[in-house]
Amino acid sequence: MGDFSSVIDLIIFFSGLYILYSVISMKTSGEINSVLLSKEMDIKKCKDLEGYKRFLFPRSLVMGIMTVVFGAAGLVNVYVVRLGSVYTALVVVLMVVLIWYFVDYRRGIKRFWGE
Length: 115
Known about the structure:
Blueprint: H1 2-29, H2 49-79, H3 85-113
């Protein structure tokens, strides 16, 4: 189980890093990376693109940080020391953050795209 779990933890960790890279890039360059948009969203139809960026930034930042932390904790749990209830708590926190992020993300689409 360790090998498969490690691969999943690495994917989660690097996905979190990519989200963080995309968030920081959005903040510095003003461009929104496609990882932060669903495929059906046409950026040209956004009612307030700068407002959407301000809306998206803190949420995506929290999502990226939590994903990195969870992926790193998974690797620590497999290779360094069993985290037990700490790891279980992180699973719960990650699930809460995921639900919060996607509910708020949909709210942002309705607000800034009118969908």
